[in-house]
Predict the structure of Hydrogenase maturation factor.
Amino acid sequence: MKQGKISETVYKRSIIKGIHFKKPEVLQGVTLPGTSSAMRISGDGNTLVTAGFSSRNIGADAESIGIISVVNEIRSRGAEPLGVIINLLYPPGYTEGELKSAIHSFDDECARQGMPILSVNGEVTDNVVRPVINLTGLGKAQEGRLLSLSDCRPGQDIVMSKHAGMEGTWLIGQMKKAALEARFSQRFIMDINRYKTEFSVAREAAAAGRHGVTAMQNVREFGVFGALWDLGTAAKTGIRVELKKINIRQETIEVCELFGLNPYQLLSEGSLLMIADDGEALVHELEKEDIPASVIGRLTPGNDRVIVNDGEERYLMPPLNDEIEKLI
């Protein structure tokens, strides 16, 4: 297999087809890499939701970003976070002081997200050359509130909140500070540094839940294009999206131009795809809470995933790597 994330083809062929034992309590099992699962909790009618995060600690605040990511994934399923299990792998030479700092970062973000740490497992091993973070988040959906992409149907609108590439732009600001300072103003860089305050999707997930959306898709690795691909796969529908309807900030455009990156395949924690019968009504509800959003397209019959730009159509392909990998 090639280095990097296991491809969708291999995942389906060698993982999904290799799992045969199932129980009726499992409502959403193994479907796509990195997606959440759901299991009915006996007796109280609630559903347990799990979400995972794995990072090779490629940049600043990996601990905080990991916690935000699993909470966002849980909220995108209509659930509330319960707690997180942390597994850490460190290379030899990693100090106890660095471990304490990491735990402090985890704990601070957990406090902000309202999700306590349930357990921490750590190991120092020469099998890794950089710290590896694996998180398993647990959440609970009330009876009848669990959202599933399999319930989506052709004709529904796709609404996207906030802006494409926010997380990647912020991370580049941390990784390539000198290059940005040589090119852009201090105000420009300060604006990028504030992006992290928008990574949580708690407010739009709550508003979308009240509106009665069919499903939501968290936007993470591989950016908006990756999330749209996963949406079509899970919903078993086609997709037609207008590229210019996808909100993107000028800072992201300029940073991506500087490093030759595609902003639509760049880390995008903080954005959420929402599937609704009336997308414009949902956008109106989100805007009342000062959450930028737009109807970027709709679900279509069949399997074609089409991106339209100035009348020109092209087919969306499954992204192999996130654009941030080019800078590592």
